[in-house]
Design brief:
Blueprint lengths: L19 H13 L2 H15 L12 H16 L3 H22 L10 H10 L5 H18 L10 H8 L3 H20 L8
């Protein structure tokens, strides 16, 4: 049970004894700690947007697809690489299943991604190369979303050891791949506008 002393009229923080000034210092450090990296990633997004249609793109799949895409972009710019990869996969799954559904295909609830890819390839929305790249994205997402033991070759720490590269470099590279793939997907029919 909580006593009266546990609640202080919301003047303190529930999770930390930091003062307002200390919170501000943490926030400023977070905002400006990687400013050059954020600018680079934002420019990269701008460069990738050049492949979209003359009037941009349409995000079909409702708010799940739209939110996944906008949050993936934000996560990417802010250097949240695992979130970028997971959100890019969510974007791809929602976009492609919605595209197949709009085309008139019966898309079952909770369709497997492999089936979505098969449907979209048969409709000409993705090529065989696109399908391979989208499956690669799914394979990057899976060990982030589901437990893998360290001896699993898809575990990021295992990849880090095998490649003799810091795991953050691997995550960054994977995030760049993921966001570029989604931007490429959005530049294709039926998402391209103009």
């Amino acid at each position: 049970m909580h006593g009266e002393e546990d609640f202080d009229d919301a003047t303190g923080d529930l999770l930390s004894p930091l003062t307002e000034t200390e919170f501000l210092q943490l926030l400023l450090r977070d905002l400006y700690g990687d400013l050059p990296g954020r600018i680079t990633r934002l420019r990269y997004l701008g460069d990738q947007a050049g492949t979209l249609g003359s009037a941009g793109t349409i995000i079909i799949g409702g708010s799940p697809a739209y939110n996944a895409f906008t949050e993936a972009r934000s996560s990417f710019v802010n250097g949240n690489y695992a979130a970028t990869i997971i959100l890019c996969q969510a974007t791809a799954e929602n976009l492609l299943a919605a595209a197949a559904s709009l085309h008139g295909s019966q898309v079952p609830n909770r369709i497997a991604f492999a089936e979505t890819l098969r449907l979209c390839e048969s409709m000409g929305y993705v090529t065989a190369h696109d399908r391979e790249e989208l499956q690669k994205l799914a394979n990057l997402r899976n060990p982030l979303a589901h437990y893998r033991s360290l001896d699993d070759p898809t575990h990021v720490d295992r990849r880090s050891i095998a490649e003799k590269t810091h795991f953050l470099e691997i995550m960054e590279r994977d995030a760049f791949f993921a966001i570029a793939l989604i931007m490429q997907l959005l530049s294709k029919r039926p998402f391209r506008v103009g």
